[in-house]
Specification:
InterPro entries: Cation/H_exchanger_TM (IPR006153), Na+/H+_antiporter_fungi (IPR004712). With 432 residues, this protein is mainly α. It is built from 20 helices and no strands. The protein has helices spanning 7-26, 28-34, 39-53, 65-87, 92-95, 97-123, 127-136, 142-149, 152-157, 160-188, 195-231, 237-257, 262-276, 283-306, 310-316, 318-330, 333-339, 348-357, 363-376, 380-410. It is globular. The N and C termini lie far apart (44 Å).
Length: 432
């Protein structure tokens, strides 16, 4: 049974989290460019020290671990998705739908199939459990992707076409992973008499379809209302800076209340907002979104470090380590190389190698794994997925800076792509 939170522990948590943010913000460029240590990696390491090493905090004492991680991950994804949409050029998904159709179609389906097959073969679990774990591991994470594609370092070393396509993919496939996860969920949960019919009629038509429509409409009218308020001089600067944060929360909570996919709705709300509010008008919004993004990212990965199931990993044995290596190498890169010729937005094999490698697994997988665990009681889902997430955070985090430098030095097209470049204000949100 959950115990009341000790006020002393609460103050210690505030001190620890504040110290984490303070220390990383103070030395962020040094950590990222000299030590190759991103904010998620830094927070993860500290979370491990706070929990398994020194036993300062225990998530189980605060409530049900699955629900805590699921809801906080949902919030972190929402903040990052709206930030991702703001960083893209206006109407990006509509202008580059051909490239995105390949990436969220054949590529995403292949990633699901390959991940499921690897889990089934290496861990020898029930086929539907393997398909469920494979679905959880499918989406590329917008939180980890943002550490690769945003900030001055990324703008200097990577062309816009690479940064924007990776960002848009991570924004879209987080929400579109929802039906992938729910197909095996419906097959595992015995209460559904006709799971396939429910999957098509409810999950696809309502949960996904309604989320796209409601998100776009909400974002579009939020942009219209913002412009009306500014035209009438009814909004001050402070309110402007939190406006899109409020829109993301309305989309996340409101769409979820009607039983639809809140995560997909948040990203589509950002896309709808972009159709109305142009880049020069929303530069201030980006800064406050980036600052909030850093706070939610570090908090989420610190809690992830607290929740790592070390004993479960030991029971997986060498097969667990083999699965991590196989997923990181085979889940995405080979298929991206094969599909590269059909993606109009990429130029040459270096684009394909870089984007094929950087498909990080992070907060989205935390969300879906805990959602699956509490709905099915299959705790092995969290054991397997958390190990792969840890491997992705470490490997993709360490390789981001050197591979970005390698890409810049070897790409024949040294100049940036012709996509419109958004001028960024120098501020706390402009991560180095």
């Amino acid at each position: 049974m959950a115990q009341p939170l000790d006020p002393t522990k609460f103050n210690l948590a505030l001190l620890s989290l504040g110290g984490l943010l303070f220390f990383y913000a103070l030395l962020s460029r040094f950590f990222k460019q000299q030590l190759y240590l991103s904010a998620p990696m830094f927070a993860l390491v500290l979370g491990i020290f706070w929990g398994p090493v020194f036993h300062l905090f225990d998530l189980h004492a605060w409530g049900t671990q699955e629900l805590i991680l699921e809801e906080l991950a949902r919030l972190a994804i929402a903040v990052q998705l709206i930030s991702t949409a703001l960083h893209l050029e206006s109407a990006y998904p509509f202008k580059h739908w051909r490239s995105l159709a390949i990436i969220i179609g054949p590529l995403m389906l292949s990633m699901w199939a390959i991940s499921s097959l690897l889990v089934y073969v290496i861990l020898n679990v029930d086929p539907w459990v393997a398909i469920l774990i494979g679905a959880v591991l499918t989406p590329t994470d917008p939180v980890l992707a943002s550490t690769i594609v945003t900030g001055k370092f990324a703008e200097k070393h990577l062309p816009d076409r690479v940064r924007h396509l990776l960002a848009a993919e991570s924004g879209l496939n987080d929400g579109l992973a929802y039906p992938f996860v729910f197909l095996p969920l419906l097959m595992v949960i015995p209460s559904y008499s006709d799971p396939i019919a429910h999957w098509f009629s409810v999950i696809w038509l309502w949960d996904v379809g309604a989320a796209i429509v409601f998100g776009l409409v909400l974002g579009y009218f939020a942009g219209k209302l913002l412009k009306w308020s500014q035209r009438k001089k009814m909004m001050d600067k402070q309110s402007f800076l939190v406006y899109m944060v409020a829109v993301s929360f309305v989309a996340l909570g409101g769409v979820k209340l009607i039983g639809s996919d809140g995560i997909l709705a948040v990203f589509m709300a950002g896309v709808g907002f972009d159709l109305v509010v142009k880049g020069s008008e929303r530069s201030e919004e980006e800064n406050v979104q980036d600052a909030l993004d850093l706070m939610t990212t570090t908090t989420m990965f610190a809690l992830f470090g607290l929740a790592l199931p070390w004993q479960d990993w030991l029971s997986l044995g060498w097969q667990g380590l083999l699965l991590v290596i196989a997923i990181l190498l085979l889940r995405r890169l080979p298929v991206f190389l094969l599909l590269n010729r059909f993606i109009p937005h990429t130029k040459g094999y270096l684009d394909a190698l870089f984007m094929g490698w950087f498909g990080p697994i992070g907060v989205a997988a935390i969300f879906y794994a805990n959602l699956a665990a509490h709905k099915t009681g299959l705790h092995e889902v969290w054991s397997v997925v958390s190990l792969v997430i840890l491997g992705s955070v470490i490997i993709h985090g360490i390789s981001a800076v050197p591979l970005s430098i390698f890409y810049q030095q070897n790409i024949s097209d040294q100049t940036n792509s012709k996509l419109p470049v958004k001028k960024r204000n120098s501020g706390i949100g402009n991560r180095e």
